[in-house]
Amino acid sequence: MADKGSLAAFKLALGLVKAQGIASQNRDGVETLVHEAELFSIAFTPAKEERPNGLDVWQHGDRNTKVLDVIWSDGTMPLILAYRCGP
Q: Distance of alpha carbon 60 from its chain centroid, rounded?
């Protein structure tokens, strides 16, 4: 179940990647929007056929750590699969 922090992070990340993301293809050949910053990366994969929307956020540092993993269908509440709170 999502809490206020994870939903706020989801909304912020989704808005940022939609506003500043660059179209790219992931390793499966699926078109995504990617926003790269010094401290983090965001990838948004839009829904297609049976696949839901997806949003992933990674924090950069000594190693890349996924800090947010969300899926949802248009018009539905997002399902937060993973959320790691931090700076």
A: 14
